[in-house]
Design a protein that fits this description.
- It is a single chain.
- Helix 1 packs parallel to helix 2.
- The chain has a three-stranded parallel sheet with strand order 1-2-3, sandwiched between helices. Strands 4-5 form a two-stranded antiparallel sheet.
- The radius of gyration is 26 Å and the shape is elongated.
- The protein folds into two domains: 112 residues, Rossmann fold (3-Layer(aba) Sandwich), CATH 3.40.50.2300; 27 residues.
- The chain is an alpha/beta fold and 178 residues long.
- The protein has six helices and five strands.
């Protein structure tokens, strides 16, 4: 059964009453838009199912809009104009590849990662990220050398049990780290 409404307020009321399998909403509804509707579905205590998939239709395809929708808890994003095949693909995704949900302090919704974690390449999948990681490794090596020098000159040992020692900070400040 399909339920149609004119805005997000009506949509949330029907959602609470009928508890549908998924929600297909338009971003540009008034007085409550699709983003606000999604947030209510995810967070409102009256929501019968916070895990209901939400497909958001929109004419906005800018990256910031996609991120905004994702951060609101949208499950799938559908840019207008779209074909019946496009809609079919999104609905198929909901059924064949349901996404796990994540709850943290400022987010509740589908896991943003689409690939299983075994295939996740981590934060260093872009060349610029690899360069930053390489620079950070170099800084860490340099810091390690400085720490070794500090340990030698102050009598601290690496590893082992933690002991509180009084260190002569004047002596430590005389160490040449260059």
């Amino acid at each position: 059964e399909v339920f149609t409404v004119k805005n997000g307020d009506e949509g949330f009321n029907i959602f609470c009453k009928e508890n549908p399998d998924f929600v297909l909403a338009d971003w540009m509804m008034s007085p409550m838009d699709g983003i606000s509707l999604t947030r209510r579905i995810r967070n409102d205590p009256r929501s019968p199912n916070h895990f209901t998939p939400v497909i958001l239709m929109t004419g906005f395809s800018e990256r910031k809009r996609v991120i905004q929708a994702r951060d609101a808890g949208v499950t799938e994003f559908l840019v207008k104009p779209f074909t019946a095949r496009d809609l079919y693909k999104r609905v198929s995704q909901l059924i064949e590849r349901p996404r796990q949900f994540v709850r943290c302090e400022d987010f509740f919704g589908p896991d943003r990662r689409r690939k299983p974690t075994s295939e996740f390449q981590g934060p260093f999948r872009r060349d610029s990220d690899k360069q930053k990681a390489s620079e950070q490794r170099d800084r860490m090596k340099e810091a390690s050398v400085h720490l070794d020098r500090l340990r030698e000159n102050t009598g601290l040992i690496r590893g082992g049990k933690f002991e509180i020692k009084q260190i002569d900070l004047n002596k430590a400040s005389d160490i040449d780290f260059e």
